[in-house]
């Protein structure tokens, strides 16, 4: 049974202590009772904040091996952060999170947001099925001296969207290196169930989708027709660009783009949730199965961009 607060009053009452937060994480991590991460036995001795497996002696905690591992901040702060992030319909900024939680460091808020974005991708999530539109779009400004699907500076993002009558069903998006057949086939195979109907334009990169019913709509030299022939994916790309410009003022570096795509997908695919608290529940549920990622791992090989905490403003 899904158990989550429906409003702020319920949230504050439910998670008024560290112990309450730990108990909630315990139920999310081990819904059928404790299981030793090492030997999978269910017998344990309570050792303060730890659980010691009786058969093998391994000591576990509700945070070890999760997104919250090694945190020095109270779990109540993390819960407040997740509540705030999931309550913001259009997304949250690091500056906003820092202000709401009273964090002394912008860097802490930035790191927390990127950790939470990593948890927005559910491990083992089902691929799309049924009738699925697939196309690509560019994120970035105008680029001179390039033709067709070539790009040197802009990010190329592939999008697949289920048809739900005339509406957009679930969708997936991913940055791809180029619009070659190898890149596009890999994207389709990773995100669409074989046997589904895949609807694309006539770009040669979509040839060879033998595991699917491939429906092709050729643009006949009129690129403007794309939004009419593939309305769902073009609507998603348009909403993504608007979200990037509105919530993040377009200040997303290519190095961090994938995590923002994950956040947009998480939010859009749950847009019909009646209670925002359900998003809180889902994100916490995914956080306990998300491997820890220290700051240096999130930031390795990255040159500071406009939204980066070390960028000179």
> Which sequence of SSEs, written as H and E, runs from N to C?
HHEEEHHHEEEHEEHHHHH
- Shape annotation: globular
Structural class: alpha/beta
Number of domains: 2
Mean pLDDT: 85
Count of distinct strands:
8
Through-space gap between termini: 47 Å
The number of distinct helices, counting runs of at least 4 residues, comes to 11
Strand order of the biggest β-sheet: 6-5-4-7-8
Helix proportion range: 25-40%
Low-confidence stretches: 141-152, 301-306
Proportion of beta-strand residues: 15-25%
Report the C-alpha radius of gyration, rounded: 22 Å
Q: How would you characterize the largest beta sheet?
A: 5 strands, mixed
Description of the structure:
About 35% of the residues lie in helices and about 15% in strands. It is α/β, with parallel strands linked by helices. A five-stranded mixed β-sheet has the order 6-5-4-7-8, sandwiched between helices. The chain has a three-stranded antiparallel β-sheet with strand order 1-2-3, with no helix packed on it. It is globular and about 70 Å long.
